# Entry
Amino acid sequence: MKLAATLALPALFLALPASARTETYRAVGTEPGWTLTIERGWITYAGDYGKTRIRIKAPAARPSFNGRRYVTRRIVVDITRAPCSDGMSDRKFPDRVTVTIGRRSVKGCGGDPMLDKAALDGSRWTIASIDGRPIRTARATEIRFEGDRITGNAGCNSFGGGYRIDHGRLSASRVVSTKMACPGPGMAVEGKFLAIIAGPARIAIRDRTLTLSSASGTATLTRTD
# Structure
């Protein structure tokens, strides 16, 4: 099925406050245990199993080799795009993170955990938003992952195809759908979603929210099963 690379959707979605679009970056390390978040212009660090705590205004990130760097008077955070395992579970992350405080450095992993098909198999989702804007379609959306198949309804027609996940990115292939016309924004939402999953789309799950981001846009899904 041929898809348009981009679709103009400003009239089809509800407005979303800018504050709701703010992304949170999380990193974690072990031995000793530590956590770090970068959110809403602040860096928050808890180290030594919570005994050491730092909260400081986040500067603009500096480009570094295959990543970025945050330098403050109290803490330096280096984020490198390279697969990382936290050493305490089977989870894999997209980034390696080094936190330096004074002369001491700790290492860990950051970004949303990278997923495989096992994490999605048998799950059902509804499309909550496209490019940060909540959607309304006359026909309810439902996206299903079963084995190596992705099927469902993205706002208008039923569709189905294969998919794979490679290094935390999802790509759908051989997608076919019915050819029914639908009133309202359903067809535009469907076209945008199918363009996103054609991928490769970075995939992340946090709680019951699935995010798919590709060059064609970002789709946020809410789990329903």
The chain has two helices and 18 strands. Confidence is low (pLDDT under 50) at residues 1-22. The first strand starts at residue 25 and ends at 29. Helices lie at 117-120, 186-198.
